[in-house]
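[job 0417] fold request received: Dockerin domain-containing protein
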Amino acid sequence: MPTPTHKPTSMPTTTHKPTPITTAICVPTPTPTSSVEILYGDLNNDNNVNSTDVTYMKRFLLGRLNTLPNPEVADVNQDGKINSTDLTILRRYILRRISSLPI
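[job 0417] inference complete; emitting structure tokens
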């Protein structure tokens, strides 16, 4: 059986290339999380909870200190208020009667 041969033609040939299909993909962006650990009771931001922080709390509660560098860490019982209860809890933590903050 003879093998077919292709002869060149003068007619142009067209080749169809498939059209690429683009599909949008929604990838959820992760919510950024804070990598900074909160040290409750560290009112002066020295990375220690000690009697100096108790002094800051007392001065703030007596109105001798207008603001705290980071009020969130002063609310050691997380009730949304900074008051004498927080001072008592902070003192008890310093005296090691409470093992962790916040309570």
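[job 0417] notes: The longest helix spans residues 51-61. Residues 58 and 64 are 9 Å apart (CA to CA).
[job 0417] exit 0
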